[in-house]
Design brief:
Strand content: 15-25%
Structural class: alpha+beta
Distance between the termini: 67 Å
Largest sheet: 10 strands, mixed
Number of helices: 15
Amino acid sequence: MNATSRIAAAIASLTLCAAAEARVTRIVIDETTPFTGPSAMPYEQIAGRAFGELDPKLPGNAIIQDIELAKDADGLVRYVATFHIVKPVDMKRASGLLWHEVPNRGRLLGLPPQERAFGDVTLVSAWQGDNAGWTAVRPTASVAGMHWLELPVAKGVTGEVFGRIVNRSGRNSQPLIVQNNPVPYKPVSLDTTKAKLVSRGGENMRGEVTDERVVAAGDWAWAKCDDKTPFPGTPDPTLICLKDGFDPARLYQVVFTAADPYVLGIGFAAWRDVGEFFKGNSNDNPLSGAIKYSIARGISQSGNYLRGWLHLGFNRGEAGNRVHDGLWPIIAGRRIALNFRWAQPDGVLELYQAGSEGPQWWLPHPDPVRGLPSAGILDRCEATKTCPKIIEHFGSAEVWALKLTPEWVGTDGKSDLPLPDSVRRYYIASSNHGGGAGGFDTSIPGAALPKAGPNCPGNNFGVGVLPANPVPHTQTVNAIRVHFRDWVMKNVAPPPSRYPMLSKGTLAEAHKAAIGFPTLPGLRATLPEPDFIMPVHDYDWGPQFNALDGSGVPSKAPPGIKQVLKMFAPKVDADGNELGGVPVVLLDAPLGTYLGWNVTAAGAMPFHKDQICNYVGGMLPFARTAAERKAAGDPRPSLEERYGSHEGYVAAVRKAAARAVEEKFLLPADADALIAAAQASAVLK
């Protein structure tokens, strides 16, 4: 029996359920204000809270880890989720399309001006219930506030959790951070003999550790300390104080026992229920009767959320209907680490962070490397006929740091995996996570090109050696938006998928020789080495963890590493710019080598020095003249050798824009704006 058949059998009883599976029982509107951004029609924004309940017995909810431990006395599970709506004041002018946004770490999202021009509506609703930092529960919702989800905990449950401190120095106490938020769990005891703290002199991309030392229980404390209150400080379960202070050249990792984990998988159901409520026709729904179509959208962490949400079957509504017609996971190539005990959904796939377990691909495919059965993200929605139309787009940073390519070639990397007709995949080559600043002067030394490198994202990761990559996503996204609206609302298919593939000779193992990366001044000659890319680790989370679904109970903190998967990356041209992507003007009329990766500098945050700078890109500008490039030992033709003059460069931009418009990846208005920007630029002036 294949994966789709197994899932179909497991959920066949769904169609027989007469009772409501999950629902929003009421909403409270906390604030309504005019929307002040530019718009073709008056818009307003509404902020409020949705109160919902779930029946744990029903299969659509039973998949939530620990939901049985979160019940109220009547057997139901309850939550409160914030929401934010931006809509036309006169809903008769609305287009009928709702964009249901997934907030990234609780942050507020607006409706882009292009969508306001269409008369679209946006709904943002909460899903992240770990109540830490930006997602902390507050009394009310606000149009200017953060999103939060109030949900129950699994009472009386204990387990081991780990947290890390990196690139910190001095005697002040330090918090445990995952990405930018606090680790959402606290120790049950402040007795340091009941926890284990180690320091490490180094870690490489394969997860190999050097110079690990145990910090004696008497040499650290769960406490706040500083110059005024030295070690052992004032007791505090969120901070670690070291007797001898922190060494910035070392990483610190603590394993401790925590209690009462949040039932974070409720965030999948809450987001589903709120979306379905506002597509409905209840009297208290300010969108009642106006929404005919909906597209779910999430960026980065939020896009990973959508992939996990769909994989676990949450696009099926309580009546067996499809909740959303479209799904747009943006710069997101994995599934969110949410529906397991002690999850830390803020993680970005640094060492020991979950999210690459199980199938990352759409259609069923075996995973012989990790010993998992054939499965795909679409299995459950195919079984219930609730799959949406899907567009996904990525840049180079997702390949090099966010572990993307198993989605394209599986874990064995032997062949390209097929895509269903309902999925489009677009690759924006040589680009940063979410795209760069755009423009043309941003690529020219002495103009708008930054002198300092960008911060490496993640937990105090470091700073990049190279200036930031400016290749934009904006214009490509504008075109994709139009295609997606037409696909969902008019059934007009978007352009065919375009991304690097083994079969087309544009994808290879991720190292210098295989991808053909040139030796360039400003980079060590061996870059990128085989161990430079951030790989997928096959973790051992323990016997109660379900790797296929990313669910269950991990019993090993941190997990062991069983093996490291072979990774792939796009091949490059003679300049080092990637092949196989959609047309982008700055790549077809380049001013330098644009990288989806950067190199971590030494300096004040040295722990990751010389390694990949997490998921931030960099660039190496071309020399202006042949003499300059020869003096620098640069094999790449100079700007003058390529374009001759400023007018020659503008002509190259005009040609590149015409190509992108013809292939439907650039809107005519954006093409005109890019040509005007090139004319106004300082390139070869």
